[in-house]
Amino acid sequence: MLVYSIEKNVIEEETGSPIFEIEPDTGVIKTAVCCLDRERTPDYSIQVVAMDGGGLKGTGTASIRVKDINDMPPQFTKDEWFTEVDETDGSNLPEMPILTVTVHDEDETNKFQYKVIDNSGYGADKFTMVRNNDGTGSLKIVQPLDYEDQLQSNGFRFRIQVNDKGEDNDNDKYHVAYSWVVVKLRDINDNKPMFERPNIESVVYENAEVGTTLETFKAVDPDQGGKGKISFAIDRSSDRQRQFNIDQSGTVTIQRKLDRENIPRHQVKILAIDDGVPPKTATATLTVIVQDINDNAPKFLKDYRPVLPEHVPPRKVVEILATDDDDRSKSNGPPFQFRLDPGADDIIRASFKVEQDQKGANGDGMAIVSSLRSFDREQQKEYLIPIVIKDHGNPAMTGTSTLTVIIGDVNDNKMQPGSKDIFVYNYQGQAPDTQIGRVYVYDLDDWDLPDKKFYWEGAEHPRFKLNEDSGMITMRQGTRDGKYHLRFKVYDRKHTQNDVPANVTVTVKEIPHEAIINSGSIRIAGITDEDFIRVWNYRTQSLSRSKLDRFRDKLSDLLNTERENVDIFSVQLRRKHPPLTDIRFSAHGSPYYKPVRLNGIVLMHREEIERDVGINITMVGIDECLYENQMCEGSCTNSLDISALPYMVNANKTALVGVRVDVQAECTCGDRNFTKSESCRTTPCYNGGRCMESRFGLKCTCPTGYTGPRCQQTTRSFRGNGWAWYPPLAMCDNSHLSLEFITRKSDGLLIYNGPIVPPERDEIIISDFIALELERGFPRLLIDFGSGTLELKVKTKKTLDDGEWHRIDLFWDTENVRIVVDYCKSAEVAEMEDGSPPEFDDSSCQARGTIPPFNEYLNVNAPLQVGGLYREQFDASLYHWHYMPVGKGFDGCIRNLIHNSKLYDFAHPGLSRNSLTGCPQTEEVCSQSEQTSRCWEHGNCVGSFSEARCQCRPGWTGPACNVPTIPTTFKQQSYVKYALSFEPDRFSTTIQLRFRTREQHGELFRVSDQHNREYGILEIKEARLHFRYNLNSLRTEEKDLWLNSVTVDDGQWHVVRVNRYGSAAMLELDGGEGRRYNETFEFDGHQWLLVDKQEGVYAGGKAEYTGVRTFEVYADYQKSCLDDIR
Predict the structure, then answer these.
(1) CA–CA separation, 624 vs 630, rounded Å?
(2) CA distances from 704 to 531, 688, 689, 719, 868 (A)
(3) Is 928 helix (H, G, I), strand (E, B) or coil?
(4) From CA 863, how far away is CA 626, in angstroms rounded?
(5) Nearest 5°: phi and psi at 879?
(6) Vertex 974, ends 968 and 977: CA angle to 5°?
(7) Taking Cα atoms as reference points, which of 677, 814, 639 lies closest to residue 734?
(8) DSSP 8-state symbol, 1052
(9) CA 340 to CA 400: how far, in whole Å?
């Protein structure tokens, strides 16, 4: 039988008694004294002996741990806690706690319960305490905090408590502890400035001088104790013409002449902007009422064109009323006085008289015009009578209006046989039944159609129809190319003439779509469409060559091509009085010449053409967007509208049936308007690329060497004495132009778009131009919207003629211009950890300026010249330019010329000299090394003048780009986490990958700092591609860049590329043209992105641990593929 005993016991200090005892026969250990204290001795060790009946012993050790009971009070580790917080922005309360407190309690387990003690001090009601998982307590805001409230601006002090019993058990004071909390408030910019008077009315005469003061606005900002600095501005949308200016004291002045007849009342929005970050803005309204002065001459009430029949005695011809734009309530209008202009021709003074009727038009006065003799239409068809009108203002205004009197025809001549030539251009051979012209007989009368009847001589031709009453011939649909001889006879019932023969020759020629989209165009003044094709002069009764024929000869001569290769296929009357006519022409060597070549050459020989053809050309290259704010207020894009319905011009002995082509002004930035869907016709592939349309959109398959997304040739080289012409820059009110270049020469013109000939006398001068050039190795930009030239230069740290590729970005809106060199990578950035605003010195990479007032847009329609200048020499003063481009030829290569996300095709310039496609200088470097010379198959060699490397196309890798990459499928809840072996650049981030998905959501790739406060995330949301990023670790200032017009859940492979430089970022999909590109290109706020090499880089979603071994992938990219992440 075993007997147990304690060999080494522990003794209680105070009494000397042993603490434990053991039952000898069972071995059960018990306490021998009351009340152990865990806080004093948490565990004990005693030695126990067991002895059997034979006297043999065995020893063992018992370890006894004292289990805790909650018998100790809690205690805050500080008597007073201090924190400083931003006031809340309105009622938006932060989720994050503003203070974490710690408690000391010797007990092992505690159920701490925290609370703010009600009424314990000012502000106690605005906060609450919560317990955290680790037992600490956090203070959170539950009511808005307002620094502008004077009581709150000094901060808050109140008490908090903790009890360690859990549930609200405050009765046992032994288990409760207290501490003070002091919260100090920081002022944030949460208040708008306040205007003293938010609505002011001002009355001013329309002849008020520029610089006249109207009113002064005053405003205060409640933030910063009312010491905030306020700046004033005018919301330009309320003052489009920029007629008013506000200075920093709030005083509004007139900066442009007012005109009551244009705008009688201005509602100008005045902005007061505070200096907070971000700033807040208040709005006030200035109503300017413009009073009339008599500054407009009276004119005819309408365009009177009375008909006076021939061979009638003197009689009253017409009564004429006048109108005046001035304010008649100020007596600045009627009654009007009329008289015949004393300087009128003798023949007019002998033929007509003008009399005043003072009581006419309800006392406004009117003129009565009468004839003084009879007239013969066959001598002269119309007379122009100048009439002087005077108003009743003080001083009075006088104006001259011209009255057109048409002599009406009487059938007083017999007809004689006639013949006619009709030329029909059949667009794509698809003309419907078309009227092509009237049967012509020689007759001095031209209004005697009702007296005539027309018949076929013999059988009707199967391809043509005749209207017997009007003599109109209709060509039936499907008529083939060729010459047709038609014979008719005409009857006149007044002169009872029968069977007068009339012959018509019809020539039909098909004209392809290619000819029309490659056509040049001119607008001519003072000549109708009929005058342009007419061969018969009724005054001299003789035949002469038509202006159309002479123009065709001139074109064939200037373009150095055969006459039959030139087609003038459209002559259309744009305006009847006074006449304006639009003419369209094409010409071909083997392919059709480009419009930029046709228009450019016509422009350079304009005076010679005008002289030899006898026309007045007012516009070369019809451009409805050329005159600012005429068709559109803002962006304006020309679209060519080609109709299947032909346009007929019918003159006596000739008729032309041409293609109806209208240039429509669309008030949008065409290159950035993605509302229309893409098709192979609207967005074709260049250079023989095959265009494929599928339900997933367009795709171009390109021949070798054409690397643009639509098979554009992206690069062109120049040798210092060349140039190349391309289509002009389209007009947009917000533009971005970028290009890259490489050179070793310090001077050279990169691009020029503007006038290439001096202006003609009396024409409306369009002096707009843009020029970008290198001058002594530094970039120089000149830009002129027609109201003065802005020059911008950037003093880069090193000159740009170093044989390396450089990139320049130009931005302009209606007032501001900016030039950025190499993404501003040379800028000096300083960012502090404490969240103070970063410092950004961009003087070595960026320059800004404002356009001299008041023009708002760059309107150019001459050729865009790349690499050099080909134009007539002229003096800058003719266009009122303040600066001229030096214009030295560029020696080097230019690539990737992009305007508003449209990539220019450099393959076939309209005209060029000493310029080649590609960049032989860098290609030579590429061919020298074994590796780079072989990479063209699945990559591109990117080289400077000194070194080259292979850049593999997406999906290929290896030194020579001949190893295909291996895609990975991401299943549900899968992700990849990367550890980087290099330190990522803080200023720039470039990410490129291929993906393929049918899912609408998922995160492709992310980089971030350790706590996910700074990040860049490439993701798919609602089937659209997004890149969102935040560079401020203290507060979220997220930017989200996305492609609105392209969905990517089509199950096809896509390539996406993100480039970030500081706070500027660019997002490109599948080559990044048009709707596949977006950017935010401002350097503001924080510029650095810190990436944690171990914890910050994920593909396919971000994994968060939810337990010890369980995790969840947030924004899971699933059931999809990724490949070739770079």
Answers:
(1) 9
(2) 51, 11, 10, 24, 28
(3) helix
(4) 14
(5) -105, 10
(6) 80
(7) 814
(8) S
(9) 9
Rounded to whole angstroms, the Cα distance separating 608 from 597 reads: 17
DSSP, res 975:
-
Q: Are 219 and 196 in contact (CB under 8 A)?
A: yes
Question: What is the CATH code for 715-913?
Answer: 2.60.120.200
**CATH superfamily, with its number, for domain 194-291:** Cadherins (2.60.40.60)
- Mean pLDDT for each 10-residue chunk of the chain (1126 residues)? 89 87 91 83 90 89 84 90 88 86 83 91 94 88 91 94 76 85 88 92 95 95 77 92 93 95 95 85 96 95 94 96 93 94 94 94 94 91 95 93 93 86 95 94 76 92 95 95 95 82 96 94 95 84 91 96 96 93 93 94 95 95 91 90 93 94 93 86 88 84 90 96 95 95 97 94 90 98 96 98 97 96 96 79 96 92 95 89 94 96 94 94 86 81 88 91 94 94 94 96 95 93 96 84 94 96 96 92 93 94 76 91 96
**Domain at 299-408, CATH from 2.60.120.1440, 3.40.50.300, 2.60.40.60, 3.50.50.60:** 2.60.40.60
Where does 348-496 show beta strands of DSSP type E?
352-357, 366-371, 382-390, 398-408, 418-427, 434-438, 452-456, 464-466, 472-475, 482-492
Cα 977 versus chain centre, distance: 37
pLDDT of the residue at 671: 87
- How many Å apart are CA 272 and CA 663, to the nearest integer? 43
Q: How far apart are CA 73 and CA 176, in angstroms?
A: 7
Angle ∠(565,571,577) on CA atoms, nearest 5: 155
Among candidate residues 600, 769, 737, the one with its CA nearest the CA of residue 671: 737
Phi, then psi, of 393 in degrees rounded to 5: -75, 175
Distance of CA 368 to the CA centre of its chain: 56
Which residues fall within 8 angstroms of residue 267, CB to CB, at 6 or more apart? 238, 285, 286, 287
| Structure tokens given for 1118 | 């699933």
**For residue 722, with 0-12 CB atoms within 10 Å meaning exposed, 13-18 middle and 19 or more buried, which class applies?**
buried
957-1123 folds as Jelly Rolls (2.60.120)
Paired tokens of 1071 = 């080559």
Look-up of token digits 């020579």: 960
Q: 606 — phi, psi (to 5°)?
A: -60, -45
Determine the 3-state secondary structure of 950 from DSSP: strand
User: How many other C-beta atoms lie within 10 A of the C-beta of residue 1003?
Assistant: 22
Rounded to 10°, the helix 595-604/547-559 angle is 100
- How far apart, in Å, are the Cα atoms of 145 and each of 180, 189, 212, 534? 19, 13, 46, 84
Please report where in the chains the tokens 């007073």 appear, as a residue. Answer: 80
Q: What would the two tokens of residue 885 be?
A: 């481009």
Q: 606-613 and 595-604 helices cross at what angle (nearest 10)?
A: 80
Q: What one-character DSSP code corresponds to residue 731?
A: P
Residue with tokens 């919560």: 130
Rg (CA), the chain: 44
What's this model's pTM, rounded to 2 decimal places? 0.82
Query: Which backbone phi and psi does 748 adopt, to 5 degrees?
Result: 170, 145
Pick the CATH number of 75-186 from 3.40.30.10, 3.40.50.720, 2.60.40.60, 3.50.50.60: 2.60.40.60
- Structure confidence at residue 834 (pLDDT): 67
Cα(1060)–Cα(824) distance, rounded to whole angstroms? 11
* DSSP character string of 313-374: -S-EEEEE-EE-SS-GGGT-SPSPEEEE-TTS-HHHHHHEEEEEETTTGGGT-EEEEEESS-
Give me the CATH code for the 417-511 domain, please. 2.60.40.60
Q: In this structure, which amino acid lies at residue 385?
A: I
* CA-based nearest residue to 1003, from 900, 1084, 1113, 1082: 1113
